[in-house]
Amino acid sequence: MSQSNSSSAATATAGDHTPMTVAYLMLIACAMMWGSNHVVARGVNATVPFEALSFWRWVVAVMLLFPVCFKYLGRDLRIMAQHKMSMFLIGFTGVFLFSVVIYLAAYNTTAVNTGLLNATTPVWVLVFAAVLTADKPRLGQWVGVLIAGAGTVTIIAKGDISVFARMDFVSGDVFAMISAMVWAAYSMLLKRAPKGVHPLSQVFVSALIGLCFLTPLYLWAVLVDGEPFFTNLDPAWPDLLKVFYIGAGPAFLGFLFWSKGVSIVGPANAGVFMYLMPVFASVLAIIFLGEELHLYHLGGIMLIAFGIWQATRKKR
After folding, report:
1. Which of 38, 83, 271, 305 has a CA between 20 and 30 Å from the CA of residue 180?
2. Hey, where are the domains in the chain?
3. Is the pTM of this model over 0.85?
């Protein structure tokens, strides 16, 4: 889950006595797990259909979340019932739509590219805010958007801009860019989340809403397209472990660590740690998948990093 849940996570438990160092370690671990999501997905793309991966990931997460959030649900369900449309949109974009698009990206391009292009989310938040709200960006922020956009184009084109004239680019790179846009939309929708709801209750209900759409997609793949129930791998246990990790790690522990970390260090400080996601994704992809880091990646990284800094820095 990219992944900016700061508006909901900020409601986490007050009066926490967790040491600041532990909070920072939690946020680093969260960024690593969210970054590893692309890598593990890329590692199972030949054996596990993306529909099955999306479905089982959230089934695992829901099963782990329920015992943890059960004590909050009685109160929180009543509050969320008064904000049905907001909760529907949050679950539809953050769980269903993002899962589908990010795994289409991971299955059709390298994990390095997926991680780097998905890191442009802050830029898309700025663009959507300019179009859909009264919050108009400053000139310096627009400059940042253009610079980060140039970095995105550099990675998609692999340093050769003529690929756009030939329409010769990898579809997975386009899906990765769309996933950043979807997560940006989800992040903006979080501002409409009902107040006073525990973050764990919110992500649990969001997951259930997302599963309402992931389930028919999964059943169609199995019953109509003839995809395997889970995996083509025999024996299946290596893929079972990987999918369980995606559900228990990025979807469950990642959110718990993010929620706890934000409640201690604050949303602004926590947000900086999300820039570690593409770093972890790239390093893990090189180590475990044997992917290569090319010169155009480095150029794209520098442009995206500088663009995000320019677009999100506070005006002095």
Report:
1. 83
2. 6-136+171-294
3. no
